[in-house]
Each structure stands twice: as C-alpha cells, then as structure tokens.
Amino acid sequence: MGARALKWQAPRFRERPPWIGCDLQTLRNSFFGPFRDMPGGQRLLLPMADGDRLAARLDGAASGRDPLLVLIHGLAGCETSASIIASARHLAGQGWAVLRLNLRGSAPSRPTAAGHYHAGRTEDLAEALRRLPHDLTRHGVVLIGQSLGGNLVLKFMGEDGHGLPVLGAASVSAPLDLAGTCAKMMAPRNFLYHSYMLAAMKREALAAGAGVSSAERAAIAAARNVFEYDDRFIAPRFGYSGALNYYERNAAKNFLCRIARPTLILHALDDPWIPASCYTAVDWPRLPSIEALLTERGGHLGFHGRDSKIAWHDEVTTSWLSRNFRSQGNKGIDGTSGGARPAPERPAAR
Predict the structure, then answer these.
(1) Percentages of the chain per state (helix, strand, coil), in multiples of 5
(2) Could you report the per-residue pLDDT of 247-273, keeping only the tens digit for each?
(3) What are the residue ranges of helices labelled H in 55-207?
(4) Domain identity same for 51 and 155
(5) Which residues does 126 contact at the CB level (< 8 Å), separation at least 6?
(6) 204 lies in a domain?
(7) Total domains present in the chain
(8) What SS3 string covers 228-287?
(9) Does residue 18 form part of some domain?
(10) Is the confidence at residue 3, as pLDDT, over 90?
(11) Distance CA 167, CA 139 (A)
C-alpha cells in the first residue's frame, strides 16, 4: 500500500476473532484492559525550564548497552492508559528499561506541572529528556509514541532530535494530518468516539490544578466539538491564529522528510479515527530513514492478532528495536535477541 519495505521479515497481521473490524479492534482494550499495572515502578519528577515538573514512571532495567525506551501517550491519556500499560509490560518483560512520560495536563503530571500539552509541544519532551539521570540515558534513548504521542515523536525526530542522544523512534496509529484527523473524528459515523474524546479532553483541561483562566474555562466548556476546542482553547493558548494554523504547523506529515535517524511507523488503514490518505499519500520510498508498515486491518491502537495475545504492534516494535538497538548478547526473557517471533510470511504492507 505504498509503504517502504521493511529490512526484515515482519509477522503478517490477521485479526483475532471476535475482534473483527476496525471498531472492535479499537475498543478491545477498553473492554478488557489491561487495567492493572505492573508491580513496582519508580516515580521520577523531571524539572522543566519554567519550574514545573513532569511525572514519569520507570519500569524494568536494561542490561548491556541497551538504550532507554521512552513511551509517550496519546490524547487525554497517561501512563495508565491500557495500550501504554500493555506496551510497557511487554517491553520491560523483554529486558528493556521503559520510561512512561506523562505530558502536561495528564493526571500524574497535573499536581506538579500546570498548563497543558498539545500535538507539537516538543520542547517539553526535549527538556524532559535532558533532565533524565545520566545512568538512564548513557546508552541513548529510543522514543515510542502512540496516537497523538506518535505525532509528537515524529515531529520531534523531524526537528533533529533537539541535539539529544535519541537513537531512533517508533510511532503507532499517529495522526500524521491533524486537520484531516479532526474532520474524520467529527464525521457522523464517529459520533460516539467524538463525544467520548471531547468529554475526556474537557475533563482533563478543567480538572483541579490544570491552570486555566476563567476565559479559557468558559471556552472549553462551550466547545461543541474537537475543532472548537482546539480553535478556542489550544490555538490561542499557544499563540496560533486558529485551529487550522495549529494543525498545519504541528502535523507530523510536514516533518517526515527531515527525519534522519531510524524510525518505524506502524498504522492500520482501517483506523476509524485517522483517514487512510494520511498514509497512502506519503511517498515512503523517498524517506530512507523511515520504515513504514501499513496493514489493511487493525483499528486504532488495536492490532489484536491471531498468532499471539501480545498486540501485533508491540511484537513488531520489539523485533525492530532488537535488530536496531539491542546490545550484543543481551537477551529477552524468551532467550532470543528479539521480542517478535520470526514469521515465514512476506513483509508486505498488507
């Protein structure tokens, strides 16, 4: 489907019954979790230049010379989002050190960091990485962004990683075209998704400690859809002339051509929230640093496949990480150097 061929043989994705179709793939984690986090975990508070501190959680411990993996959540999410917990659990179980970063406005960061994040606020990500202990970053960092966090990560990579020791990145279900994604989210078939997400965004923005003015509070409460929320709250708060200006200046599609470090992009073309054209319009072969794998099925952050109860995107990401960044001789818990099982199937983007 126009994606650049991978440099290894990735397992083919096939939907696992009963999770057939984009909506059930998307909603499966909401129905069945995981809702319980891993035991333990270390809390870090990372100072920002303005005196605020972003909350992060560290799980696992890398051995050898493996880089730190930093997971970035999506819109209205945080370290306890079901897909973030599932990814962190799988990656830590494969022997990686995994840090889950909570952006401004998310519940874990709200007590120590006022304000809000947006789709392209990469300066916070850069500052958080600079504030990580050297022991964690001495072998480099690899970023993994999910959904809106994927857009943030890809924009960051297109900005040359802000001069930080970021070795590479991966994104899953990223809205490369923010304006197109907003329009699709507001389509009649997505009424329930849109209502749910708008309510979650408003709760997050209006929660105690979020640091909004009375005028902003009124604008948030009055927003009837995601576009109005972005146009009346996010855009003016961050100095954009309106939602369309905010979308265009922060959409990852405009930064892909500048990415110079190894980057993996995974996406399902039946994603109910993101237009397939966001991905099919990209000339992937002209982007030598990016390996993109587009599947016909999988929904949004779904990828619940027949061959494993581990989400397909987590298996593919782990395999890619192992081939690109795992230190010699460092093995996962299954005794192999990679998390995803080799598959005899073609590495096609279908």
Answers:
(1) 40, 15, 50
(2) 999 999 999 999 999 999 999 999 999
(3) 82-93, 122-130, 134-137, 148-158, 178-185, 191-206
(4) yes
(5) 156, 162, 164
(6) yes
(7) 2
(8) HHHHHHHHHHCCCCCHHHHHHHHCHHHCHHHCCCCEEEEEECCCCCCCCHHHHCCCHHHC
(9) yes
(10) no
(11) 9
**Mean pLDDT in residue range 168-183:** 98
If asked whether residues 238 and 156 sit together in one domain, one would say no
CA distance 330 to 179: 43
C-alpha distances in angstroms, 92 versus 163, 176, 224, 302?
Answer: 27, 28, 40, 20
CATH number assigned to the domain comprising residue 41? 3.40.50.1820
What CA–CA distance (Å, rounded) separates 348 from 350?
Answer: 6
- The tens digit of pLDDT for each residue in 105-115 reads 999 999 999 88
Q: What percent of the chain has pLDDT over 70?
A: 91
Cross-strand bridge partners of residue 53: 47
Domain holding 223, by residue range, is 189-250
Question: Same domain for 94 and 160?
Answer: yes
Is the pLDDT reported for residue 149 higher than 60?
yes
Half-sphere exposure at residue 51, Cβ-oriented, CA atoms within 13 angstroms? 1
Domain identity same for 322 and 204 = no
Give the sheet arrangement for strand 263-268, strand by strand.
42-47, 53-59, 98-101, 68-72, 141-146, 166-172, 263-268, 290-295
**263 within some domain:** yes
Count of CB atoms within 10 A of residue 167's CB? 18
Q: 243-250 vs 178-185: helix axis angle to the nearest 10?
A: 130
Confidence of residue 328 (pLDDT cuts 50, 70, 90): low
